[in-house]
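User: Just a sanity check before I run the rest of the batch. Below are the structure tokens for the first item. I only need the designed sequence back.
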């Protein structure tokens, strides 16, 4: 990431936003797969729960150009993201399959939902 930030600075390109770098790491090298000017998902889901500093404070410091004036703190806890998708995803995949066990996770586990329908409640009632 540092070479990218340095190159933007050398070109006089001031950037005040999120820059998410998708990287491929192997034994010999680190390669950039993509850059996104947004929070990556599910990558963000393992970063934000560790954040002790209020995200709004960080965003406001970025907007005002004062990020160097705040201290960003994170917990020491580890986070692991597990993504489950229906077989065949992202191509042709089955929909409407049941998902079970979501209510049985430990209290320190966060479950993020996307692209599913909770049949116990009407949509929009969360």
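Assistant: Here's the designed sequence for the first item:
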């Amino acid at each position: 990431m540092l070479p990218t930030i340095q190159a933007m600075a050398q070109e006089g390109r001031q950037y005040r936003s999120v820059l998410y770098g998708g990287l491929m790491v192997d034994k010999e090298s680190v390669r950039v797969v993509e850059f996104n000017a947004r929070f990556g998902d599910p990558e963000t889901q393992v970063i934000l729960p560790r954040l002790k500093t209020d995200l709004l404070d960080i965003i406001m410091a970025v907007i005002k150009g004062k990020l160097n004036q705040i201290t960003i703190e994170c917990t020491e806890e580890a986070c692991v993201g597990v993504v489950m998708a229906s077989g065949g995803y992202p191509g042709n995949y089955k929909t409407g399959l049941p998902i079970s066990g979501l209510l049985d996770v430990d209290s320190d586990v966060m479950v993020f939902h996307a692209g599913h329908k909770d049949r116990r409640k009407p949509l929009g009632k969360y």
